[in-house]
Design a protein that fits this description.
The complex is a heterodimer of chains A (448) and B (478). Chain A is of the alpha/beta class. Chain A contains 14 helices and 11 strands. Chain A has helices at residues 3-15, 27-42, 85-92, 135-142, 159-165, 199-209, 245-258, 275-290, 308-319, 322-335, 341-364, 386-390, 397-402, 431-446; strands spanning 22-25, 54-58, 96-101, 148-152, 168-171, 192-196, 233-237, 263-267, 367-371, 406-413, 419-425. Chain B has 3 domains: 5-289, no CATH class; 296-412, no CATH class; 418-474, Arc Repressor Mutant, subunit A (Orthogonal Bundle). The chains are: A alpha/beta (448), B alpha+beta (478).
Chain lengths: 448, 478
């Protein structure tokens, strides 16, 4: 089968999708690119590790000549004048980007319910959310629409939906994947990463997108060295104890299976208790600044207005959804004169503590393990209180705070048949080691 | 009125002379047609990231060194958040808590104006207003300037008069131009200045409440605006009022400052470290490189010239521009100590006069009239081979075709030989008999016509003083 035929059948599958995973299919572009790959293959080009592989990207990564919108009304009509670095790398490797996937507006949410394009449903159970904010990318892979997709993870936004949908998702070390062309939410936390059904798929995509990019000052190389010799030590943070009984049972069983081949120890990360609190200072603060450029002047939605100031109020008032506005206000307050030291500065200090605690935990353990989420996928509309929703990310946010690489892999199902995700965190820049370890664990879990 | 102490502090923005912008690779050229030097980064497209321009950091370091600042090993870019159509990201990347350079001073006349800091930042774009016109009724934005690198130099409130403010800015400009850091052209906007002014009754009192004055577009406007503002504050206080903290705009056509916004209306910029940028680390290597790149500065050159016997006036003129100072420095290296004042005279009265009339730049002029030609002129003068008249005649020729003065002096056939002048004088007397009679009978002024005749016949080569001497002798007056 030619790449073009393969891509066109992929597009047909997506068109029949009932989960609302995609905001837009790049049909013309994808078919054109597929033809290009076909002719390159025909001419004997062997330098295409992802030749013809369909990949979906989250709606916060840009492609030249295509719309990108962070599932927000404020970017209505915006067409990107340039390519994100991940797009360039994927396409250079022969991948075909088939469309942009649904998400929580500006990646602010844990359920993909804040999208201006309606919620995405979980293919495991259509009454339930796929998690978020990269819910569309997770659901697209889980329902077999595409083999791979990209998400972004600022506070668990790849790992939690991977967990809810029963697939693998990876948040690389902060800086390992270029953020150039990722529409920023919280710059010091945002990280692009892959979704796939298994760790082989994760590895395949990761190898293409990882590595230093001159256009992103915060980007970095990964450490190529892999694991150590001898028995691998897994640390379980004793503070990560708020799971639902169902999640706890599945996780404990999984740990028991691991304990046959690996050493399991307790570690302590006392300051992670504050991780969610400081996340809701740092992330909104950065977001309040990052999202200021959406003012209706150069691109995107512009409301009818009387004058300049009225235009700012109306454009932003109508263009952003409630959750986004809530976080912009939180952030603007935390950064304002007189409060900066008490909130933002203090949050940065706690962040430093969390980093240090991870560093010492990694003196004892090679990886740190936990459930990905304290609970399994909840029903659409089930959690409406923002605070309760924020607490869904209690296990995932610490890795963002410390900039660590982390994956979520499936480790079993609860009695209702809902998948439970298993989180593995590794020291900074040890992404290769993390992938190797996750593959071993994956083998253990799938052996049963 | 005189019992007020005036305190002025200046915030000066100089545009650094880099090839590209501060955080992207667009040309740092704001004079091109609107929106031709722009890219996704400097227009603030969604998803873009800034990358520091190393050249701007190096120029910032050099500027800091030229201003006697401490260069900080570690400084941080922060975001200054505010909404305005010429600011595409709705934040300006600047330095707040940890600037590139701290302390420092500028020597102005015999005073030292201390500096608080110097920090790097990016410029905003420009709005072009077409309100009520066709085909565009409204404002357009030109983002060419957006993202060009600036160094903001903040002084302490050490300046106590509008004149000193004027002199400080002139001196600062001169230093920045010498250091090759900026063109500092106020008309083109590569030098901009805001000024903070307060008054108080005595040294024992703390500084008074300050007003910030913006929108001064020339050195003279800085002087006029601060003079106006000082008078405004004095009158206000003497009338029992109080100065309030506010930003005021200078209106040059009205010659007044007007309130723009009060402290209460001032924006809260919500500064925080830019998470997209790594801190600036200044290595020992970078410091050494810039110390080496730093040329002799104006004050140093002026002191050197003064030590060679030049007057204050001459030394000031000759150090105004680096290329001129360098030029003169080469000249004095080639003349004897007793010829240096003459050399200064020639450069100021002839070379600069030619320069003022010419379309050439000083650099271009230097290629035509190399310093060694000035040295030759000085030598010819000292040897008495040419006089002022000859100098005047041959200098334009030197400028015209780059000929050496020695060759030109040969052409002119210098009349240093008295017998030739006597011959010319006798002819002149014959041609102007009535004037000659008048002169002999005591009308001193009548000699003018005869001298002029000699000068004309000698094609300016004769020395008028010598001609007079000869005429006096012929008339039996000595």
């Amino acid at each position: 089968m030619s790449v073009k035929e393969n891509i066109s059948s992929c597009i047909e599958r997506i068109k029949r999708d009932k989960t609302n995973s995609f905001i837009e299919i790049f049909e013309k572009r994808a078919l054109r690119k597929a033809e290009g790959i076909d002719s390159r293959l025909a001419s004997g080009d062997r330098n295409l590790p992802l030749a013809g592989e369909p990949v979906a990207i989250k709606d916060n990564m840009v492609i030249k000549g295509e719309a990108a919108g962070c599932a927000s009304r404020i970017l209505e009509g915006f067409v990107s004048p340039y390519d994100a670095e991940v797009v360039t790398r994927l396409e250079n490797a022969g991948a075909v980007i088939v469309g942009r996937t649904n998400m929580d507006e500006f990646a602010m949410g844990s359920s993909t319910e804040t999208s201006a394009f309606g919620p995405t449903r979980n293919p495991v159970d259509m009454e339930r959310v796929p998690g978020g904010s990269s819910g569309g990318s997770a659901a697209a892979v889980a329902s077999g629409l595409v083999p791979y997709s990209l998400g972004s993870d600022t506070g668990g936004s790849i790992r939690q939906p991977a967990s809810f949908c029963g697939i693998c998702g990876m948040k690389p070390t902060y800086g390992v994947v270029s953020r150039y062309g990722l529409i920023a939410f919280a710059s010091s936390l945002d990280q692009i990463g892959p979704f796939a059904k298994d760790m082989d798929g994760i590895e395949k995509i990761f190898n293409i997108i990882a590595g230093k990019d001159e256009k992103d000052e915060t980007s970095r190389e990964i450490e190529k060295l892999s694991g150590k010799k001898g028995k691998l030590v897994c640390g379980i943070p004793k503070e990560f104890s708020g799971s639902s009984p169902e999640v706890k049972e599945v996780f404990d069983k999984a740990v028991k299976k691991l304990s046959r081949d690996f050493e399991i120890i307790d570690v302590s990360l006392p300051s992670t208790e504050y991780a969610v609190s400081i996340y809701y200072i740092i992330a909104p603060s950065e977001a309040s600044s990052n999202l200021s450029r959406f003012d209706g002047i150069r691109y995107g939605f512009r409301a009818e207005s009387e004058d300049l100031i009225d235009g700012y109020f109306k454009t932003r008032g109508q263009g952003f959804g409630d959750e986004v506005k809530r976080r912009i206000m939180l952030g603007a307050f935390a950064l304002s004169s007189g409060y900066y030291d008490a909130y933002y500065m203090k949050a940065l200090k706690v962040r430093r503590l969390i980093k240090n605690e991870f560093d010492s935990a990694f003196q004892k353990a090679d990886v740190i393990i936990s459930p990905t989420s304290p609970r399994t996928a909840f029903k659409l509309g089930e959690i409406t209180d923002p605070l309760s929703l924020y607490l869904q990310d209690v296990y995932t946010i610490p890795a963002n705070m410390a900039g660590l690489p982390a994956v979520s892999i499936p480790c079993g199902k609860d009695p209702a048949g809902l998948p439970v995700g298993f989180q593995i965190m590794a020291p900074r820049a040890r992404d290769i080691f993390l992938i190797e370890t996750a593959k071993k664990f994956e083998a253990v879990f799938s052996n049963e | 009125m005189s019992d007020f102490i005036v305190s002025i502090g200046l915030e000066v923005h100089v545009q650094l002379k880099t090839k590209t912008k501060m955080f992207c690779s667009c040309a740092a050229d704001s004079q091109s047609p609107p929106n031709t030097n722009i890219c996704p980064v400097c227009t603030g497209q969604p998803g873009v990231l800034p990358v520091k321009n190393e050249e701007a950091v190096l120029l910032g370091i050099r500027a800091g060194l030229a201003l006697n600042c401490k260069i900080e090993k570690f400084s941080v870019f922060e975001r200054k958040n505010y909404f305005y159509p010429d600011l595409p990201k709705a934040y300006q990347i600047s330095q707040c808590e940890l600037p590139l350079a701290t302390g420092g001073f500028v020597e102005v006349n015999d005073r030292k104006v201390r500096l608080t800091r110097a920090h790097l930042e990016e410029d905003a774009g420009k709005l072009l207003h077409f309100i009520g016109s066709e085909p565009v009724d409204g404002s357009l934005v030109d983002l060419n300037r957006c993202g060009t690198p600036l160094l903001e130099i903040v002084s302490e409130p050490d300046i106590d008069s509008p004149q000193l403010a004027f002199d400080y800015l002139k001196t600062l400009r001169r230093i920045m131009r010498y250091a090759g850091v900026s063109d500092c052209d106020m008309e083109e906007g590569s030098l901009r200045c805001d000024c903070n002014i307060s008054i108080r009754r005595s040294e024992d009192e703390p500084l008074g409440v300050k007003a910030e004055i913006k929108n001064m577009n020339s050195f003279k406007e800085l002087k006029d605006a601060s003079a106006y503002e000082i008078e405004r504050q004095k009158k206000l206080v003497e009338g029992g009022g109080q100065v309030i903290q506010e930003t005021r705009l200078w209106n040059s056509s009205k010659g007044k400052t007007f309130s723009m916004r009060s402290k209460e209306e001032a924006a809260d910029y919500r500064y925080f470290p830019d998470p997209d940028l790594k801190p600036v680390y200044v290595s020992a290597g970078m410091l050494t490189k810039e110390k080496e790149a730093l040329p002799s500065l104006p004050l140093e050159m002026k002191k050197k010239f003064l030590s060679r016997g030049l007057s204050e006036y001459q030394a000031d003129i000759l150090t105004d521009e680096k290329v001129l100072a360098d030029y003169f420095d080469e000249v004095i290296a080639g003349v004897t100590p007793d010829g240096q004042e003459e050399a200064a005279n020639i450069v100021i009265s002839y070379l600069l006069a030619e320069f003022d009339q010419s379309a050439l730049s000083l650099e271009e002029l230097k290629k035509i009239v190399p310093p060694v030609h000035i040295c030759e002129l000085v030598k010819l003068r000292k040897e008495g081979k040419i006089n002022k008249q000859v100098l005047k005649t041959i200098f334009p020729k030197m400028v015209k075709d780059g000929a050496s003065p020695r060759d030109l002096a040969g052409d002119v056939d210098i009349v240093s030989d008295e017998s030739a002048i006597i011959k010319l004088a006798e002819e002149a007397v014959k041609a102007n008999t009535s004037s000659w009679e008048d002169y002999k009978s005591g009308k001193e002024k009548a000699s003018g016509r005869i001298v002029a005749h000699v000068m004309k016949e000698s094609r300016g080569a004769a020395d008028p003083a010598t001609v007079m001497k000869i005429l006096k002798r012929m008339a039996g007056k000595c």
